[in-house]
Specification:
By secondary structure, this protein is mainly α. The protein has one domain. About 75% of the residues lie in helices and about 0% in strands. The relative contact order is 0.25. The protein is built from nine helices and no strands.
């Protein structure tokens, strides 16, 4: 049981550790101290649902719907391009500085953006429904399988809350407009690169 849970935790953590669109957004909101708890909870809960579906054996969804990867890739790429261009534009214009109250972005809009980063990203389905679901088949009986899935879910909660609240440690470095321009440029480039990778992956 413990070994299965540890394996699930390490597997889940390794899959979400890489800097991607979702992680970059959580990091930025964490620096702004804007809706951090709700955002981290939403991202972790979304992962939990997908991991549960993968462990439950729904990894065959993509096989049953051959057009799904193409639709998700193109939809996700379009969103990433839009958000990436907005961040590059923000870096070009400049003028933003870190303030205690953060940006005037509503909770609803913040979660809507997070939802797009999460549910329009085809890689999240490959990681959760596909990879984690496939690995979970090696754990029997049911208790071990549930422990594996629980470990993967725990990894998501630990990661997103650590990223969101840990970002505050970088706050002293983000007191200038120049620092925010660099961050926005990096995020924008990451978004555009991921979008290009999604499109090239289905062509």
């Amino acid at each position: 049981m413990i070994a299965a849970a540890v394996t699930g935790f390490l597997t889940g953590f390794s899959l979400i550790l890489a800097i991607g669109a979702q992680n970059a957004f959580v990091l930025r909101q964490g620096l702004l101290r804007s809706h951090v708890f709700a955002l981290a909870l939403f991202c972790a809960a979304s992962d939990a649902l997908l991991i549960a579906a993968g462990v439950a054996g729904f990894g065959a969804l993509a096989a049953a719907l051959p057009a799904l990867p193409l639709v998700m890739s193109l939809g996700g790429a379009a969103f990433l391009v839009g958000y990436g261009v907005s961040r590059v534009h923000a870096a070009w214009v400049g003028g933003h500085v870190l303030t205690p109250e953060g940006e005037a972005r509503s909770l609803r809009r913040t979660l809507a953006i997070a939802a797009a980063f999460t549910w329009l990203n085809p890689h999240v389905y490959l990681d959760t429904l596909g990879l984690i679901g496939a690995i979970s088949t090696g754990f029997e009986p049911l208790d071990a399988k549930l422990a594996f899935g629980g470990g993967a879910v725990l990894a998501s909660f630990v990661f997103f809350f650590s990223l969101g609240y840990g970002a505050r440690l970088l706050a002293p470095l983000m007191r200038t407009s120049t620092a925010w321009r660099v961050l926005d440029l990096i995020i924008g480039v990451v978004m555009l690169a991921i979008a290009a990778k999604l499109v090239l992956g289905v062509l």
